[in-house]
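Researcher: Going back to the complex we discussed earlier. I've cleaned up the inputs and rechecked each line, so this should be the final set. Can you rerun the prediction on the complete assembly and write out the structure?
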Amino acid sequence: MRAKRLWTWLGRSRHNAGLALLNAVLFVAVAARYPQFASAAGLRDSFDDTSILILLALGQMLVMLTRAIDLSVAASVALTGMCVALINQAMPGAALPWLVLSAALLGAALGAVNGLLVWQLRIPPIVVTLGTLAIYRGATYLVAHGRWVNSSDMSPLFLSLVRERWGGVTLLSWLAIAGALLTACWLHYTAAGRSLYTAGNNPEAARYVGVDVGRAQCLAFMVNGVLAGLCGYLWVARYAVAYTEIASGFELTVIAACVIGGVSIAGGSGSVVGVLLGCLFLGVIKNALPLLAVSPFWQMAISGAVIVTAALLNATGARAPQRQRILEN
Amino acid sequence: MTDEASPSQRVPRTPWRRRLLRWEVFLALVIAADFAFNVRLSPYFLSTETLSDVSFNFTEKALVALPMTLLIIAGEIDISVAATMALVSVCMGLLATTTASLSAIVGCGLAVGLLAGAFNGALVTHWRVPAIVATIGTMSLYRGLAYGILGDRVLKDYPPAFAFFGQGYIAGPVSFELLLFTLAAVLCALYLHRTQFGRRLVAIGYNKSAAQMAGVRVNRYRFGLFVATGVASAAASVLLTSRLGSTRPSIAQGMELDIISMVILGGVAISGGRGSIAGVVLAAILTGLAIFGLGLINVPGVVVSLLMGALLILIVGLPIVGQRLARARARSQLRP
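Model: Rerun complete. Updated structure for the full complex:
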């Protein structure tokens, strides 16, 4: 009886609790075999590795909440990263804060293109982002004339900023933590943030309540774009290289993290905690594989199996959409 | 109550058909324009050999685009087609290293495609996973399996007769690929536009719940469509592998987006319920012509994708912009 009451009380947190448990089990299993995985340095490195995924997944969650999807986010990362790297190469003395700001602004502009096409032209988001995915990737090539920007072309401050440690944790990790906190606060305590949930959960009802669904989607795309722009700089600085194909296919990892984290593809439900857990799950798998001497070629298959399983559990578990959308087309 | 139909009872020509016809005409005009552009690029463009070469550019993708059209009209989507092609290719390549016969290799490939499609279908119909999520997962799974099995090796031990599928000609400039695609296109067009099963697909895409309550076995149709898409991916994989002569796990990378773009360019609504096979065939030809023409002037692949992406957005967005302008003009005319 007690167990059943606990189950009901946990309610929607059931999914997150289950995912947290799974993460813990996985972590313990790997750490038992390879203690260096659970060492402070190992944890730090794993989290650092997952930070960019966390930021991008948070942005993707915002878009998915409004019943849209953004397949172009990795291409946005590549384009903004390449632009920032090229500026740094041409003007090594340019102040870094301005550089990061311009990356974020460029990302916002790219997101706004997506958002406006979805809002004003009512083109379905998947079509828009399929198109912009190709456009931004092509623009990355054109902007650099197909050339690479190597670490020797980048200024030392450009590269070192993400690696600076405050209290033992890199700036990159702090940014991920700050991003998660800010997103959670925005979604829970501001009207704009709540409007995303409203718009995605039931667009017709949202219209009657006064929430412009298209505008909410555009807002989500723009915030996602800002995060993508920031991650463009972070990616290029962390991996110390910029070329056309960076982050290629990464949008699927981002979507996977969201799906595992319980964000519904039909919009209207999803939590920052879930997304964090989803990212950590993928991060644990990615960092554990080399330790377990599993060929990195199998990583994609494992990732895919995890997505399928997570989607299965989401669809058939307690969180399955109870409401039959009978009246909806 | 009289028996003869009064003018008000006569059913008017369905408006959606009128709208569709306009889209196909529009595509045909764009094709003509692109044709003229390509001819200006190179005078050799008009020879039958060149035109036959152009067909290789789109037949494999278009073969998958046909059942994909039916799938999207029914309100679903399958992003895992290219990954299925990769997995099929890897399985065929592995079998080819043994002493298996040609029909065994091709049969194995088709079987793998069928199973892959069936798994997608089961996820969507039985376990009610949304199609887009399910196929994103299976896309990673199948592509990952291909990578995991093959790693960074290449499989090249196909029997010489295998090359006929992708490189052989039936009569003159008509390749086997083109013939296969034409047959498949005719079959799909007949199925969608002339049979009751096709009409039911449109009904499912228009309003799934209503179709279900009207007695259509929605889940059976959806499952069948996913299986058909899997088999078509397998067939396309046979053609592509045969044309390339080798198998890498990265084969057909990114092709799913090209295929979906082709379907949407063909006038199929992504939300389902509207579309025609003729439109998709025209879109396939347009894509092939455009890519071929751009290749003639040595445009890099990534820029070709850029242009195709821009074309997609333009073609989908232009009618909507036109509608808004017309409405704005009508509104301004109403004002005294």
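Model: Worth noting: The longest helix of chain B spans residues 301-334.
Researcher: Good, that matches what I expected from the previous run.
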